[in-house]
Every structure is written in structure tokens, then in C-alpha cells.
Amino acid sequence: MKKEIHVWDLPIKKVYIQLRSPFREEFFNKAYKKFNNWKLLGEYLNIKRGDTRIARDWKQGRCCYPLDIILKISRLINTSEYEIEKNIVQIKAKKMLNKRGGSSGKPLDNPKFPIKINADFAEILGHISGDGTISRWNPKKGIKTAYTNSEINLVNKFDRLISDVFGEIKSSLQTRTKGNYRRPNYQIVYPTIISYIILAIYDYKTTNEGQELPKAIFNLNKDAQCRFLRALFDDEGYVNLKRKVIRIGMKPKKCIEQTQKILQNVNIPTTDIIKEKKEGGYFYSIRLSNSEGVIKFHKKIGFEHPMKKEKLNKLICKGWKFKRFSNGMAKIKIKELLKNNENITINQISKILKRTPSTIREHIEVMNN
After folding, report:
1. The model scores a pTM over 0.90
2. Angle at Cα 226 formed by Cα 221 and Cα 229, nearest 5°?
């Protein structure tokens, strides 16, 4: 199980770093002593004008330098990769690479390598799996990470998590009001270096067919899994006070199957997966529809989203007038009634089982799928 991300887990040919002084000067001086000539050192590293590029620009900290070259030097002078990692003060990703080096995105300052794959990281991954995205449609121009939500508190919390986990980074916040938005939507965007770190453990896909939840979540402890679920439910879940259920739905069926599995890992029961016809395809969902599941969700996971948190608290205070069926029992009883009387109506079943007609109808739809 991978517990942390090291700098060498990133695409080393596309990543540039800046080392801390005085480690930086000592590092390049040791490399110089192997040849006693900056030009010869440059030839060894396939760097033109080593006397100015390495001796002046790199050694004096005027610019960043390729990570793959620094790792090559570390092997030359027997300096540990871990020593390199702990002395990085700035890291950035290069895009549009060419003979002149290419352009770079915004840097990550004072990066916290090795990056710990902990509960905070799990919460970030939950939001990426929900209302977040990693855009890889044109990687030559960069790979941006973005998170969009109408609740500004969630956006601000996501931004704090990014800084707490990765280091100091300048994000870009945009407000969307045009189109079909009922309330303003806020999108926060991060440069390619953040995407590289996340992609080191999460092979994010943008298509519904290929999209899955991060496999790393299944290897984390239950606290981290609950943090992941909270972020995901903050984005994709909702609370129905009238029907006393918590529901989460997504287009990729695999994501709902995995969400159900993680809920089971933390001992929270759910309904079977419900398949619904939606415009442009199908939509899959699961529900927490009995008191046991809802109460456990409230205690272990909860919501950060203010309105959803308020609704869940109201639902807990309101309680349940009757004991709900255990998972699967409602369908068994409905099947028995239908078997004994093919002409029985939904309203008649609802009266016998003391459930609403809409609830009976949904059970029958799931049974027929």
C-alpha cells in the first residue's frame, strides 16, 4: 500500500525544481569537482553552456532546473534522492516542451514532500471524484485541476486542504453566473503541478465509461474513507426530509458500485443500486433509507455543506415513526404479495406494508431492472 508520494513519482522530465540554499551551492559544487570544469559537466548532462547555465543560473538560484537532471547529478555525486526531496523549495511543471525549454505553470512553493496520503488527501480525492475535474484533453498546454460548487464554503475548504496537503500554491477563483445557474457557481483552478501529484495515485478519467473512484481509498483506514465519503456526498448527495432518506447518484455505474462498497466498509447499509433513465443515458443511485444507515452516516460521515447538514440534523431530530425493513426485506414482501395476487395494486401493497405508494413503486422498478 502506497502511503506517500515522492517527487520522483512525478513525470521527472516535465517537472522543474529549485533547491534550498546553501544545499544548492554545495550540490552543484560537488558535481563540478567531478570534472573540475563547468563545460565538461554540461556536456555530461547534455546541457549547453554549462559555464553559464549551471555555474550561474542554477547554482545561484536564478531559475528552476529539470528534475531528471538533478536526479542524474545526485547519482553522480552519491547524494540521496531523499536529500534532494527535503531540500526542494519550489517545484513547477513545464508545458509545451521544446528546444528552448517551454513555458511553465504557476509554482508550488515549499512543497510538503513526501506528500502524505492521509485523511486530508482522501477528502481532496472525494471532491475530485464529485464536482472536481482534471482536464487532460490537451496535455501539451497543461493539465488543470478544478473544483466547482455553488457553496463557497466548500470551495474555500477545498482550497485550504490543497495548501495543507501540498504546500503554498496560488489558485484562480472564477464566479459563474451566466447560463442556467440558479445561484452563482464558484470554480477554483490549480496549475499542472497539482494535477501531476494527484495523478500519481489517481488515474482520473473524464468519460463516464472509464471513470472510477481512486483505488487508493480502499487501502486507507476507516477515518480517511469517511472523509472521502463526506466530500463525495457534499457534492453528489442530498437529503430528502419528507421521505427520510439520504441519496447519492452518479452517471458512472462503477462509481456508485464503489461508493456502496466503501459505505459497507464503514458498516453503513444501503439499498441496492437503482438505475434510472435520464436524458443522454442512465443514472445510478443508492440510498440510505433506514434509521440505522442514516444515524450511522450522521455519526461517522455527516455533511460539510451547510444546507445538507441542516437537513440531516432535522431528519435525525424528527426520527422515525415506524421501524423500517432491513435491507432487502421490503422487496421480499412485495414479491410475496405479487405472487399471491397478480392483480394487487401499488396502493393496496402500500397499505399492507404501511409504506407510501411512491416507495413501493420504486422498489418494483428496481426489481424489474
Report:
1. no
2. 130
Rounded Cα–Cα distance for residues 29 and 60 (Å): 11
Question: What SS3 state is found at 75?
Answer: helix
Radius of gyration of the chain (CA): 27
**Cβ atoms of 302 and 239 closer than 8 Å:** no
pLDDT tens figures, 227-284: 999 999 999 999 999 888 999 999 999 999 999 999 999 999 999 999 988 777 889 9
* Whether the Cβ atoms of residue 94 and residue 14 lie closer than 8 Å to each other: yes
- For cell 495515485, the residue is 201
- Cell readout for 143 is 493539465
**Is the distance from CB of 109 to CB of 90 less than 8 angstroms?**
yes
Q: Which of 232, 235, 242 is nearest to 262 (CA)?
A: 232
Residue ranges of E strands in the chain: 4-5, 15-19, 65-66, 88-95, 103-104, 108-109, 115-116, 132-135, 144-149, 168-169, 172-176, 185-190, 237-240, 245-250, 274-278, 281-288
Residue 33 CA to its chain's centroid (Å): 45
